[in-house]
Hints:
mainly alpha, 2 domains, 16 helices
Amino acid sequence: MLTGGVISTFLLLVNNSLSEPKNIEIFAENVAHFTHGMMTVMFILFALSINTQRHRSRLLQFLFRTTLLWLFLEVQDICSLIINRFWGNNIFATINLCINTLRIPATFAVLFAVFSPEWIKKLLPVVFIPFAILIAAFTVFQNIHIYRLLVASAALVSIAALFYVLRASCLYNKYRKTNCANSEYNSVQWLLRFVAMLCVALAVWVATKLKSARWDDAISYSLMLAMWIFFYFKVNKHAFVEIPVLLNPCKTLTAHRKCLQKKEAETNRDFAEKLHKKMHVEQLYLNPNLRIRDLAAALATNRTYLSAYLNNILQTSFYDYVNALRVEKACCLLIEERQKSLEEVAEMCGFGSLSTFRRSFQKIKKQTPNEWRIEI
């Protein structure tokens, strides 16, 4: 019934407006008013539909509040049209345009909420308060520079938000494919299509504005009507997935790096424990034929990772690391086994030759094995 009424009303507009070719401008204006009214009805229906749902997700709860904001802006637009028709106040029209810039943070706030409904609550004051201050300042002072600053801010917010949505969409989809068994309803591919529609709608509006100003509102409202219907039905089916800290824009790049460094430190700590067990407890270094690939195999890793760990974390080479352990072992034996010769001590510690033992010992202890034994 509602659909039939809408179609009948639209056909009536067409018949009345196109009865004469000269009335094409009136027809464009009527289409703009018609689609404007349809958007108002649409947001009313969206709000009622969400409000009647018993178990609303955080995303739908936020969408409900945003829908009320959009509804307010639509009603405010309608009131502005009525006032301008009867009083023709240019200042009031400009103030109305300023207030309409709230559509930009409202739109992208909903898009952000798809990724993190909890985080968006913290972001809202940061996004909306500057706009509210600039709108209030223009209303009071009516300075054209304030208006230009507001428009520039809206443009910057749009570009930054668009970049984030595209980046987060790709990372979000990659994350859910890895961590979710059933990814049919938590995909955000539809959000990329919505953003593409948003860009197309903006391009069409700009092109229409430059070529024929009388059709800009009619086309923009028609495209927005289709886009928000698409968005509403997709959001209703969307299953939110908790995302990693990488997608949380409250975290700066530095914070993200710290998070990665923390995870790397935890990994290195686990590896260090395994290495300590193999070398200090099981004493693999006592094997004179020990090679880096043998130790890597014992640690269930590869020689590249082991070499990188020794070079970057311990700041040493495999050769120096093993010989340092052998020298420490030799220090103990030189005290405990005083009757043993240097050749025997070197062999017991894993050195392949006496010359290698002496050279390594003097490099680390800054004296020969005999000198060290005498002093101790």
